[in-house]
Amino acid sequence: MGNLFCCIQVDQSTVAIKEKFGKYEQVLEPGCHCLPWFLGSQLAGHLTLRLQQLDVRCETKTKDNVFVNVVASIQYRALADKASDAFYKLSNTRNQIQAYVFDELPLPELVIRASVPKLNLDDVFEQKNEIARAVEDELEKAMSAYGYEIVQTLIVDIEPDEHVKRAMNEINAVDQSTVAIKEKFGKYEQVLEPGCHCLPWFLGSQLAGHLTLRLQQLDVRCETKTKDNVFVNVVASIQYRALADKASDAFYKLSNTRNQIQAYVFDELPLPELVIRASVPKLNLDDVFEQKNEIARAVEDELEKAMSAYGYEIVQTLIVDIEPDEHVKRAMNEINAAARMRMAANEKAEAEKILQIKRAEGEAESKYLSGLGIARQRQAIVDGLRDSVLGFSVNVPGTTAKDVMDMVLVTQYFDTMKEIGASSKSSAVFIPHGPGAVRDVASQIRDGLLQASATQ
């Protein structure tokens, strides 16, 4: 249908080659293009610009006369600006790249078959990245003329001859903190310490496996009930390791060490009757929290007895968590909160008591000092009145002390009334409040003084 309307579609990451009367004309980018067939235009083909990968294998010989198969993974893609070269110059890109790397063309003298024979087998493994970079550089030079870019080259495998591999397996290295189990015709023979060991396979020797001597940890959880009927989850952390002098027992007697320890602590074997599920039900919840170290020691002692027969040492056991039921935890938190509120109320009441005592002591001291001030004030007033009466009597002949006192009282009365009248919010009221009341006040004061004198 597209040819009928002289239109073609070029997909993304692809280019198309346009010819006119069989001769290259142009590269068509992704999109819709018109090719009028009646004018001789035609589509020669498509060329993908996506990244492609080619895995190729080459057999060669190392410096120490070991035949190896080297597998290289080459990632490449066509260049959009050289699409015509990539389309017309190579009939089969993958075969061409493979020929350049390994087989027919003179380029191999610069890469795989030139590099590997200069190295021993161990050096080939160590320098595979340098070999890959050499392949990539030389391929880039060769393939750029054909419109292709070499994106990356990796040496993904170096596989020696089968007999060489078997011979290499005869020499085994055992890492530090690890032992290996050696068998002969399937029967245990010895424990191999860290280092290099020879296992001649033709004599029936083989490696059964490795056993780590590093410290390992297992966290296990057990649900049980306390004496006061509270269900709790007890989490124990057990640190253990295999014994080097009992490595054969640790390797052959247990198929799954972690499951065996968990069974001994909590689940299936009779040992739990001696540890978690025998200890916790004898204690109240508070005592379980207080005595968790004793429970941990009991677990450790019993596990040590059981696991020593299997070549394992229990280094340490810790009770890392005791988790009651959610409702119990909520109730415990409420009890604790109530106790703290009660303590806070007591402290607050004690503080208020101290505050009131200090306030009363302050008021008492204030009143005492105020009384001293008032007494001194009155003494000063009396002294001033006495001097005023004496001075007035001397300066005004014929006046008595009574006349002077009456005049002073009247003066003070008017001064007081003036002060009361000057304040709009004063609530002081004198009853009686007439000027004649001064005589009565003076008479009362004088009578009081005379009576006091008579009494003395």
UniProtKB/TrEMBL annotation:
Question: Where does the record place it?
Answer: Cell membrane
Q: How does it sit in the membrane?
A: Lipid-anchor
Domain of life assignment: Eukaryota
Q: Which residues form a coiled coil?
A: 289-361
SUPFAM superfamilies recorded: Band 7/SPFH domain (SSF117892)
- Gene3D superfamilies according to UniProt: Band 7 domain
List the GO cellular component terms. Answer: plasma membrane
Family matches, as SMART domains: PHB (SM00244)
All copies of the Band domain together span 5-172, 174-336
Sorted UniProt keywords: Coiled coil, Lipoprotein, Myristate
Recorded hits in InterPro entries, A to Z, give: Band7/mec-2_domain, Band_7, Band_7/SPFH_dom_sf
Q: What is this protein called?
A: Hypersensitive-induced response protein 1
Species: Morella rubra
